[in-house]
Amino acid sequence: MKVLFHLLSSFGSNKRSSKSVIPNNSKLLIIIMALLPTTFFAQQSTANDSTKVNQLDEVLISAIRITSKTPISFSNLDKKDIAPRNLGQDIPILMNYMPSVVTTSDAGNGFGYTGIRVRGSDATRVNVTINGIPYNDSESSGTYFVDMPDFASSLQSIQLQRGVGTSTNGAGAFGASLNMLTDNYSKKSSAEISNSYGSFNSHKHTVKFSTGLMNDHFEIAGRLSTLKSDGYVERASSDLKSYFFQGTYVGKTTLIKALAFGGKERTYQAWNGIDADMVATNPSFNYSGMYTDQFGVTRFYRDEVDNYQQDHFQLHWNEKLSTFWNTNLAVHYTKGKGYYENYHQDASLSDYGLTPVGSQTTTDLITRKWLDNDFYGTTFSANYKKNKVDFIFGGALNKYDGNHYGEVTWARFASTSQPEDRYYTNYGNKLDFNTYSKINYQLTKKIGLYGDLQYRHINYQANGIELGEATVNFSFFNPKAGITYDFNKSNSVYFSYAKANREPNRTDFENGIPKAEQLDDYEFGWRLNTKAVKLNTNFYFMNYKDQLVKTGAVNLIGSELRANVDKSYRAGLEIDAMIRFSSKLYFSPNVTLSSNKIKNYSVDTGSGLVNYGTTNISFSPNVIAGSKFTYMPLTNLQFSLLNKYVGEQYAGNFDTQETKLGSYATVDFNASYEIKPKSVFQSIIFSGLVNNLSNKHYVSNAYLYGNNYMSYFPQAGTNFLIGMTLKF
Fold it and tell me: Which are the contacts of 50, defined by CB distance < 8 A and separation ≥ 6?
């Protein structure tokens, strides 16, 4: 306990207090109070020395992950599934072939900024955790995987829960929950060097190592990565660097893991898209950074970039208290700081806090808009498992302190104001507390019951140019319940109901006074599991109240705008399977058929409300399908053919021809070959990936500017990546 209190004291003392919702000394008190259930168990129970230590995923992830015993739709992607295609593309692109998933890439080739939608819900509505620690940005709710390049190389597995899913920490899940588990410790020492090269001057270089368990108790492991790509889109370059280090202590009943990981990204902006004429004539064109110099020559500003660094620190303590009790306690801290830089032509001096010079009131200037934030807190859980009962109690207390400010770094005309003076300074502070209890109870040999209760409280304070000052509080109660019935060892059916609530994000507040969202999620499924066939069939009905739907528009800094709609729903059928034709040939198809509607969609046009009737929810295709054929002629040789189909969707909520995005289908080819030499190397792995074999020209995303202008994001035609991994 002395060690714990010492860690917490030093941890809390470094936080800023000028904009805190609660005093600094109160922060420590609240964190300690949140930890009391776990520390109480630790003091009152005596561990069984003869009991083996559970692995990290069995202790930590049991609090937020599910199995086929839970009546929720989910899919897993483990290391062996990721490895053959892990050649530099971002995590959303590696998840592209999972059920109900649609992905997009600003640069067009999967490097740099990428996006993911699940059941039509974008990443701001997907709860994302790393080892149970929230990853969504506290204010925007966004998940920026570009800040952690090559993070897939340090992942043990990914679980995607569709719908509300099970209770977890952080942002409410309104489309899915994505749980990422980092590498476990290794008993044996190892080293690995990976290099890949491909189209658009793309390349990735990774070095990994593990000492193995030293003295049967300690392991140190790490990874360093660098990735670069010019991108398919002009100047959409990426210069990415990342690291991952962990130290692990393994005892008879104890597992302690300290992690430090993060990345630095510098990407040329490609988030403006292009108009329809450019899509037809020059689909790789990029407007970002374009300006006309004093001689009338069109030029592009070379530093129109997004530049950001994010560093994560996690400490996990897993304890097996007895045969039936396991606990997990974690503290974490994330530091993020960076800016995006823009060239502005004929900008008003007064808009940027600059004094006009004589009659000169406008000028060309360069700005940097900064975000400087700290995110820290604790998560905890206790798991009791005995006979028919699997009970989990857990929660989290997290604090976010964010500073937003803008600087003018250069102006063509002189001013009495100094360059780099801040022309705005804003803040956003958020306190997020949640606690949950959930149980799987095997009522009979055939019937399993599931219950899940979560309470979440949010306090948010912010200001902004449009926002003014705001202090809001939300308290949510989110119950979930379900039942599973096993007909036999191969067949089972389930039904579940989940209630979810979710707060608006910063951009929503900047554009009005939004309401919190509510969701009732009904799921009914059938699972078949035999040696030859694994089949999951799931019907869902997600009924929303005051859903914040994307309007298709963006604001001046590229953030997507949303608006509350009174009533809306998503209803669909998901089917995914794995069919084993033989020991050498596998087929894994999936398809989602859905209807996604806004009821009585009304919009204030300025002269009154206009009712457009029932319309489609933006960015929600009615058909999403994928498949993977895998052929293994030899145990060390694998070929895969991957197909993806995305049906028509709309970039707005009006169902107009102008906002419709056409359907598209792509085919990728992936190969992997492993050699096991008798000396020096443990193995040598060659891998290759050809994306978009048919050279399909398609658009995966679009934004609506005003009422008439559409901005599109074309994706690359045929492109490739090849790689080699040396394992020692």
Answer: 252
Q: Helix crossing, 24-44 with 2-12: angle to 10°?
A: 160
Q: Would you list the DSSP string of 273-334?
A: -B-HHHHHH-TT---TTEEE-TTS-EEE-TT-EEEEEEEEEEEEEEEE-SSSEEEEEEEEEE
Kindly indicate the confidence band of residue 25, based on its pLDDT and cuts at 50, 70 and 90. very low
Coil, strand or helix at 616: strand
Buried/exposed code over 672-688 (b: 16+ C-beta within 10 A; e: otherwise): bebeeeeeebeeebebb
C-alpha to C-alpha distance for 524 and 634, rounded to whole angstroms: 40
β 133-134/190-198 pair status:
unpaired
Distance CA 265, CA 310 (A): 9
H-run or E-run covering 27 = helix 24-44
For 319-362, what is each residue's pLDDT tens digit? 999 999 999 999 999 999 999 999 999 999 888 888 887 788 89
Q: How many residues does the chain have?
A: 728
Are the C-beta atoms of 239 and 266 separated by less than 8 Å?
A: yes
CA dihedral 478, 435, 403, 130 (to 10 degrees): -90
**Cα–Cα distance between 595 and 126 in angstroms, integer?**
19
Of 374, 461, 371, 368, the closest CA to residue 422 belongs to 368
C-alpha span between 594 and 574 (Å, rounded) = 8
- Tell me the CA distances in angstroms from 334 to 130, 264, 376, 399, one per residue in order: 12, 13, 6, 11
Quick check: 726 and 681 in contact, CB under 8 A? yes
Neighbour tally for 223: CB within 10 Å? 22
The partner residues of 357 in beta bridges, in order of sequence, read: 360
Question: Which one, of 143, 160, 36, lies nearest residue 435 by Cα?
Answer: 36
**DSSP letters spanning 427-469:** EEEEEEEEEEEEEEEE-SSSEEEEEEEEEEEEEEEEEETTTEE
For 133-145, the pLDDT digits (tens) are: 999 999 989 899 9
Whether the predicted pLDDT of 159 surpasses 50: yes
State both tokens at 112: 């740099």
Domains in the chain, CATH or no CATH each: 2-46+54-727 (2.40.170.20)
What residue ranges in 555-621 does DSSP mark as E strands?
560-580, 585-599, 602-604, 609-611, 615-616
- d(Cα 340, Cα 271) in Å, to the nearest integer? 12
Q: How many CA atoms lie within 13 A of 350 on its CB side?
A: 5
Q: How many CB atoms lie within 10 A of CB 14?
A: 10
Cβ-contact 662, 623 below 8 angstroms: no
pTM for this structure?
A: 0.90
Q: Measured between alpha carbons, how far is 584 from 580 in angstroms, rounded to an integer? A: 8
Which one-letter DSSP state was computed for residue 236? -
Residue 394 corresponds to which tokens in the numbers above?
């857990």
